[in-house]
Amino acid sequence: MPKTLSIQTKNPGNTPELIAASLRTAILQGRLESNQPLRQDQIAELFGVSKIPVREAMVQLRAEGLIEFAPNRGFVVSELSPAEVEEIYVMRMALETKALERAIPKLRSADLIRAASVLEISETEEDRSQWGELNWEFHSTLYQAAEWPRLLNTIRVLHNNVGRYLLIYLGGLSARDASQAEHKKILQACQKRDVDRAVKILQQHLSRASRRLVVFLCDQGDHTIKGVKS
Amino acid sequence: MPKTLSIQTKNPGNTPELIAASLRTAILQGRLESNQPLRQDQIAELFGVSKIPVREAMVQLRAEGLIEFAPNRGFVVSELSPAEVEEIYVMRMALETKALERAIPKLRSADLIRAASVLEISETEEDRSQWGELNWEFHSTLYQAAEWPRLLNTIRVLHNNVGRYLLIYLGGLSARDASQAEHKKILQACQKRDVDRAVKILQQHLSRASRRLVVFLCDQGDHTIKGVKS
DNA sequence: TAAAGTATAATCGTATACGATAATTGTCAA
DNA sequence: TTGACAATTATCGTATACGATTATACTTTA
Q1: What is the pTM assigned to this prediction?
Q2: Which end of chain A is more exposed for a tag (fewer CB within 10 A), N or C?
Q3: The total number of structural domains that make up chain A
Q4: Are residues A137 and A204 in the same domain?
Q5: Cβ contact (<8 Å) for B150 and A65?
């Protein structure tokens, strides 16, 4: 369990939502590891609330696939098998290409500027825990122009699911530089309104990330099958 | 509010799940209409439980997009605008073609027989509230062979979201016959392991349903913008 | 009458409490 | 020592209760 997840002062939103957001970030940043049990009492105390809003937050996170549930045993942080990572990338490819296709003709210069500045910030960002967030910022800045909010949200959920693992694998600087270079190419194609080229690079970008991630997870010492150590 | 949603005898599963399943079915079958508020006390009493498992069920259904939530105002059954229906069909097309592509080479004869028998049953099924379920049975029988459970689940959620509306529009017998004919063609292509043809027909099937549904919703007396009558 | 304000009722949100279930530890016999 | 069983502890699941919020009905006043 991390030292502290978040301490709220008042209640400026709704409580289960705030708790879900805090836990979500902790999982994405790798501060909560796979298979780690989430104790309701403990988390409730951490946030200074009872178990009830905590459980609602967890039902939400379970629906997003970030945690798993077993009756009377509680919730644990999900672990993805290489096969599941592949599956998620198949879905991302199918959905993100649709989003990008529709977004490109609708991109405003403000969107392009924003995407470019996110890339710049990424260059100098030292804090690894922020990389996943910046990565999402870049992609979502482009996709949101499609004005398909449900699609964007589904993509976000899928992105979050691989987020933790992406973080580990981007740890290698060469992988990160390659990823950055691909982002720049995608942005250039967007600026030229070259849909086919942008989509093609995006596909390469995702399938490369998928392959690297799968290799990483397979090499990764533990040959784990869905949380059951062999 | 319908007469009865479901009366449980014991607790053979976990309670919020059972409640969610029951409400989900009620929404899919059109027994709970769009914008109808879901009163926690009332539903709790209906199931003979307190509000707490009811709220958890609702958080789950909200995550699936079937109901919406406003703090201190509670939950209401979602209403889809024509634009949202289109969006969902774009997503379905992107995802279902991937599922079908991968499934076809892996389809076992048992799967094909099952799909065929679902179509047969559909022919004779009088009860309209079952059509959505049978429709899903047919599609999911084909898709599950892909062995991508997350993808299948996401498709199911999307299917559920348009389920109610589909039900209304399939009310017209000609539309239903057309849909059945397309299903048969898809199945034939699957039997011949003709991936390209099957995918092509599936795309037509979905885009036709989408167009018809959008037209239907636009004609549909009420020119409603996200629940706010104009 | 209509707008504004107030009182009442309906509903929500969750802290507390407690029985139910699972995990852990301790005990005993083989 | 080790396996089976019992006792203990930890944790879960939710019914109850109650304050907080919102909706509705009822005044009051201009």
Answers
A1: 0.92
A2: C
A3: 2
A4: yes
A5: yes
